[in-house]
Design goal:
Length: 290
């Protein structure tokens, strides 16, 4: 049934959108492609799982604590590994390549560290919500309904932060003109560190929700990183509305392709879409030509 598949696609797309939001925020503010983002997402899921198993916390108490821990880790990694490189040669090609290599190195360090700490066995996060909701002929588990609600809450909170707070205005100023923002006294390092914190918190939410629907394991970060790439290119690099629209579109494409054609081909259609966008609108649907 088409309506059922659309609902399933929105649930999947909600998680994709959350995954891409943190990724595109970093690019928008710092002009950095963070290849370690998928591993931050994975670690966020493990932080939530560990808080639940070690302290006996319910999911909705462990998740905010996991978000705080992941945000802190993301900021520490920024100051220890990325900031020293961007301070030297922020706009040069050499500087950009060094940042890419460092984040690629972090990807492997964080993944192997997770294997050592938590092992390779996949584990599921229990949200503690059961039952179903019937909307006409559409069957939706309450757990999946909560996933959509959490995405809506996080997007609303992100919007309010960006457009209703001083730090949000400063962040947008940095994204539009870093040199101009510095000239009026804005501290670019502190603002970008704040972006890394927000990005880490969003990654934790996305990873934890993936853990409730599928499983948590050290290798889980690769697919979300790849999807985030596709989504931000589809929606436009650095565009928050583009990340939301791209995430929902990708979730719907994968679900409908899997239901009506074959799950074996869903990635083919995903990357055909990516190629079409790059050919027809290289800046993405919501992106601007720089």
């Amino acid at each position: 049934m088409l309506a059922q598949q659309v609902v399933n696609g929105i649930v999947l797309g909600s998680i994709y959108a959350l995954s891409a939001l943190g990724f595109t925020l970093i690019f928008g503010a710092a002009r950095l492609v963070n290849f370690a983002y998928g591993e931050i997402l994975m670690l966020g899921a493990f932080f939530t799982l560990t808080l639940m198993s070690a302290l006996g916390l319910p999911f909705f108490a462990a998740l905010p604590a996991g978000m705080a821990a992941t945000a802190l880790l993301s900021v520490v990694l920024f100051y220890l590994t990325i900031r020293p490189l961007t301070r030297k040669s922020y706009t040069s090609l050499q500087g950009e390549l060094q940042v890419i290599l460092v984040t690629l190195g972090l990807l492997y360090v964080l993944r192997e560290s997770a294997f050592i700490i938590w092992g390779s066995a996949p584990r599921k996060i229990e949200m503690g919500i059961s039952g179903i909701v019937l909307i006409g002929d559409v069957v939706l588990t309450r757990q999946r309904l909560v996933v959509i609600l959490i995405m809506a809450i996080m997007v609303t909170a992100l919007y309010l932060m960006l457009y209703r707070t001083r730090i949000g205005k400063a962040l947008r100023a940095i994204a539009q003109n870093r040199e101009g923002a510095a000239a009026i006294g804005l501290d670019g390092d502190r603002i970008i560190a704040f972006v890394f914190a927000v990005s880490g918190a969003l990654a934790c939410v996305a990873g934890s929700l993936l853990g409730t629907l599928y499983a948590v394991e050290p290798a889980m970060g690769g697919a979300p990183l790849l999807k985030a790439f596709v989504i931000v290119i589809f929606g436009g690099l650095g565009s928050v509305p583009g990340a939301i629209a791209g995430g929902l579109a990708l979730g719907l494409i994968e679900t409908l392709t899997g239901a009506y054609i074959s799950f074996a081909f869903k990635d083919i259609f995903t990357f055909l879409l990516l190629i079409a966008v790059l050919l027809l609108r290289p800046a993405g649907l919501f992106g601007r030509v720089r």
